[in-house]
Amino acid sequence: MSPSPRTALAVLCAGALMAIVDETVVAVSLPAIGADLGFSPAGLAWVTSAYLIAFAGLLLFAGRLGDLVGRRRVFLVGMAVFTSASVLCGLAWHPAVLVTARFVQGAGGAAMTAVILGIIVTLFDSPRPRAKALGAFGFVQASGGTLGMLVGGVVTELVSWHWVFFVNVPVGLVALVLAVRVVPDDRGAGLSAGMDLPGAALVTGALVAGIATIVRIEEHGWASGHTALGAAASGLLLTAFALRQSRARTPLLPARLLRSRILAGANAVLLLLVASMFGFMFGTVLLLRTVLGFGARETGFAMVPAALAIALFSLSITPRAITRFGERVVLTAGLVAVVGGLAILARTPLSADYPVHVLPALLLLGTGFGLAMPALMSWGMAEATPADSGTVSGLFNTTQQVGGALGLSTMLVVAAARTRDLVADGTPEPPAMLAGYRFGYLLAGGVVVAALLIALIVPGPRRVSGGASDTVPAGYRSEPPGP
User: Which CATH architecture has domain 5-188+199-461?
Assistant: First the structure.
């Protein structure tokens, strides 16, 4: 009996969830990690930064590698590396060991995540099943950060920070065994088809320099020499990469993809949407902790309603809505809901009551992200073909990571700057901190409005004849259309 695509989807989503969760799972655990291993304040930030730099920097390269050597093979190697590095993270006895293991863990997460969308669009060939599959993956992408903070807070308080990493091991081992059995084997085009190694080195260097600069903006500031130098280095490498792609015999990003207004528009909307999502998520955690006085575990549970709303819409309602109304309508509705939720948070009073002033915004934001993310993924992958679906998947995931890092850094910087200005003018610290977070929410709302305008201007998705959406791997049966 041939394996079911639904089983393969569950394994793929498990891998993606581990990778996304580990971006934020250490957020609540950092004080305990720093005290136990003797990190300096500046060094402690690298527990998060090392993971993000490797994860975001290698996604595009890993996606192209999947097209050449097989997406299943890259996923399996990534899962093995991620799980092994998680063991080393949990056993870390020195700051340098933990930072190095986090970098390796991020590289494994990149290999896993980069090819998942490419595998999904070849598994599901009918509109309704594909929409459901992308809804499941969208749920993972949109809620993984929130779940990470919840898991990190609960595990750190009940056991220790070591188990924040050890929990990956049994999940990773089971997923790895199942993946060997149920994820379809694909040979890929072969390395002889051409891997643009100079182009891969240039774009990886550009992404690493860019992400490293972005995640350190809170420490150095927007106008610092460190930020300017990092941005210049990233820009020069990206320029060199673009020139290389115009001349390479087998470019990392084929000209067809670079010319696609649909792909460019979807990635632009994704960048802005994810930036707002990470800004909202971390801003709300800080609001709950520093203004409303919530504890670590209490904060994690307070964020759960947003994740539940994302699950309800992305797993159930959104796939049906996409099939009936199309990606653009669903995406637009989701973006409008996100703007509404951020507007509510931007009016949070100092004496805020969670059920009255915060919960409604969380539910609205969860609804918006649950609508927008699956629709956006369906839109972005619409022109992928079997030959380049891994590359498109890697590009889409790269955009998401850059947007997340940019949104997080921007939220923290503008909120802190606003707070400092008000304190300098004589405002007491609690209302000044609240004003900083509210200003961050307004900025995030403006970013989503820009995403909404792009979504209304860019052409809607269309299917490519013979593309990835028309292909089902041998040995797999298509899911029947839903009722």
Answer: Up-down Bundle (1.20)
